[in-house]
Amino acid sequence: MLLGVASGRFILKTLPDDEEFVATGMPDRPRLILATRNAHKTEEIRSMLGDRYEVLDVNDFPDLPAIAETGTTFLENARLKAEGISREVPGIVLSDDSGLEVDALGGAPGVWSSSYGGEEGNHPKNNERLMREMAGRTDRAARFRCTMVLAEGGQTLADFSGTVEGRIVEDLRGTGGFGYDPLFVPNGYDATFAELGNEVKNQLSHRARALAQVVGWLAGRG
Ligand code: ITT
């Protein structure tokens, strides 16, 4: 059972496998609420954390307001999401603002990675535009960046960043991952993140690098 507060109203939601919480009123492990609606991010973070944390995201709290990402940097948007959601739910909230920076495109799509193709969260369209913009270019260097923010009660506790350097290939390759993964080859590899699969991606990704710092920070806090 999960109790949250959204816009002044209580939400009660049953999680059938959360028997410990039902029995004692307390979860058996620390809870981390992700300020994301992107199920792929949640899946990656949950898989990287293993069973150390009970990981929920805003999709588990259906009445939460949408947070407008009006910032111009990953940090600004990560703070908006973490602070905004942590005002509405009890406990520690973790946000992830991330994107792809391509040198030949002056750092685009950057913080606008999610809507680069013209439609928020439309990954095929984003990839189509990226392939079009990169056609014929020889400088193919790029990196994924991820900024994570921990917040509680509307206040930022700490922020963390991770990057992974690589290059953009000409055609989509592979079926794993999400977003730009079929076009991104990390340095030291010949395969895209989508070809390498989540096990490899989760060892070296921008998200993995930021999350490792988050885990260290939370462990130090006790
Ligand atoms: P939330 O704001 O709800 O977390 P979002 O997907 O809109 O979800 P962002 O604003 O941080 O999140 O935009 C992230 C975009 O950057 C994402 O939609 C992808 O296009 C790209 N991206 C980020 N991490 C990626 C990854 O690991 N692999 C591929 N593309 C990624």
> What count of structural domains?
1
Shape: globular
User: Total number of helical segments?
Assistant: 7
- Count the strands? 8
Radius of gyration: 18 Å
Strand order of the largest sheet: 4-3-5-6-7-8
Largest sheet: 6 strands, mixed
User: Could you tell me the mean pLDDT?
Assistant: 89
Structural classification: alpha/beta
Structure description:
The protein is of the alpha/beta class. The protein has a single domain, classed as Maf protein, CATH 3.90.950. The chain has 7 helices and 8 strands, in the order ββαβαβαβαβββααα. It has helices at residues 19-24, 39-49, 74-86, 123-134, 193-196, 198-204, 206-221, and strands at 2-6, 9-13, 31-34, 54-57, 93-102, 141-152, 155-168, 184-186. The strands form 2 sheets. It has a 6-stranded mixed β-sheet. A two-stranded antiparallel sheet has the order 1-2. Strand 1 and strand 2 form a beta hairpin. Helix 2 crosses helix 7 and helix 6 packs across helix 7 (206-221). Mean pLDDT is 89; it is low at 1-26. Bound molecules: inosine 5'-triphosphate (ITT). Inosine 5'-triphosphate is lined by residues 36-38, 41, 69, 96-100, 113-114, 121, 126, 144, 177-181, 205, 207.
